[in-house]
Amino acid sequence: MIVALFLFSLAVITYDSLPYIPFSVYRPLAMFPMLAASALLLLTDFRFKPADMLLTIFAAYSVGHSLLVSITGGDTGSSVKHAITLVFGLSMYRVSVYIAGEAKRDPVLRKQIAIALTIGMGLPLAIGLLQTLDAYLVRSGFSMTITGLFSEKVYKGRIQMLSGEPSWAGIHLLSCGLLMLFLYKEGFKKLMLVPLIGCVLLLVLSFSAYAYSVLFTALLIYVLIANKYRGRMLLALAAIAAIIGVGVPFLLETLKVSGYFTDRFQFDFAHLLKADNSFFVRVVFPAIGFMEFGQHPIFGVGGGFYYKEFADLLLKHFDYGMKFTEVKLLVEQNPDMATSRNLWAKLFAEEGLIGAFLFIGFMVAALRSSRSNPYAQFAFALCVSLVMNFDSYSFVNFWLLIGWIRGGFFEDRLAVQAAEWDKPNEKELKRTA
After folding, report:
1. Where are the transmembrane segments (predicted)?
2. Which of 13, 31, 52, 64 could make a disulfide contact with 48, Cβ separation 3.0–4.6 Å?
3. Predicted confidence (pLDDT) per residue in 341-389, tens digit
4. DSSP assignments along 248-311, one per residue
5. pTM of the model
6. Interior CA angle at 256 toward 255 and 258, to 5°?
7. Which of 10, 4, 1 is CA-nearest to residue 400?
8. Does residue 239 surpass a pLDDT of 70?
9. Which are the contacts of 180, defined by CB distance < 8 A and separation ≥ 6?
10. CB contact at 8 A, 285 and 332
């Protein structure tokens, strides 16, 4: 049952903003079967690894600290929401670690994972191709009706697949694309080839500055942490920089693409900061988080309470952003809805040095676990860069990749088999002695 729930979550991993249950902006359908699977795991003998205790301690500290702040500040609702996101995050991580451990030894499960991932990306890729056709050739908006069945927000002329935002589609293309590339290398070529081609095509034609920057940052991090293929990655880094700097502007002009997002490829950051709402939010909101950390360096402002000083700091240092409707509404009407839009900024602002050291300690353990395989190392680098525009602890793609790194999903099959053979050999040696 645990495996079935996990496979179902993979099959719906891209459904992150269904319009039928609007309880949150980011509401991935996959987190509910993951939570159920985690509950069932309590009935087994599965336990966290020693280094995972840092994550458990972090969660306990974060929830406890948040509740204390809520008692003094009088907003228990924000504290409860924060605690719920941590519960979902821990649940997704536990299940991912467990499945990774099982998949190391079970080739049938690996094939089931490949099939579930193909199902999970099949429809989104097909809708993404329709959006591409509509955006660059037909230009009638016919794809918006189809997209609206799966997403509360629909963007005209953008490739968002079935996600709530084009940038979230980029997250799925990068994270699921990496997993499909690994499974392709593992022998599932017939299943993975067509979806992989679709991922590459949509990633290029999405013209998502966020997706490009995440990929570029991930490659840069990989070069810094890798012990293999650094030369190849440096070449890839240079190629992506050339594509973003030269190829993308050429494609935009050739395809006659216009829209608010095309200005980002002029690389005039000072202009974008004052003219592009999305760019302003992605730069300034994390900056405010680090300002809050500077004012509360030890304990932070408390989990879920980034918004407490948000409005004052924005009006004091970035008041020109009030011309953007989204920013104005957050400051004047819904300040409690303001978030840092960046997990690292959220971590330091809300948890302070104590919480940050605990979480980063856990991430260091994940980094050490990734040393055995280049795919695991790149998955780690991707996790670090993915949260540049994501601040939720219930981020499915993040926990899936981190869990599979810690669980050994990316480990070499021959090495795993040899380790399994060694166990009975050790027992036999003991009997002989």
Report:
1. 29-46, 53-71, 83-101, 113-130, 167-185, 191-222, 234-252, 347-367, 379-405
2. 52
3. 999 999 999 999 999 999 999 999 999 999 889 999 999 999 999 998 8
4. HHHHHHHTT--SGGGGGGG--HHHHHHH-HHHHHHHHHHHHHHHHHHHSTTT-S-TT-GGGGHH
5. 0.90
6. 125
7. 10
8. yes
9. 117, 118, 121, 192, 195, 196, 199
10. no
d(CA 238, CA 300): 38
Amino acid in the structure at residue 391: D
Q: Is 403 helix (H, G, I), strand (E, B) or coil?
A: helix
The predicted structure's pLDDT at residue 419: 44
The CA–CA distances, whole Å, from 100 to 56, 110, 247, 260, 293 equal: 19, 9, 38, 41, 36
**Residue 182 in contact with residue 376, Cβ under 8 Å?**
no
Residue 264 carries which side chain, given as an amino acid letter? Answer: R
Check residue 23 and give its pLDDT: 67
Among residues 355, 299, 308, 335, the alpha carbon closest in space to that of 68 is found at: 299
Cβ(385)–Cβ(214) below 8 Å: yes
Residue 407: its H or E element: helix 396-407
pLDDT, tens only, 160-208: 999 988 999 999 999 999 999 999 999 999 999 999 999 999 999 998 8
Q: Are 198 and 128 in contact (CB under 8 A)?
A: yes
Q: Say whether pLDDT at 288 is over 80.
A: yes
User: What per-residue confidence (pLDDT) applies to 413?
Assistant: 62
Largest CA distance in the chain: 80
Instruction: Quick: pLDDT tens for 105-134.
Output: 899 999 999 999 999 999 999 999 999 999
Instruction: Using the Cα atoms of residue 214, residue 219, residue 225 and residue 228 in order, give the sign of their dihedral.
Output: positive
Q: Transcribe 303-339 into DSSP letters.
A: TT-GGGGHHHHHHHH-GGGGGSHHHHHHHHT-GGG--
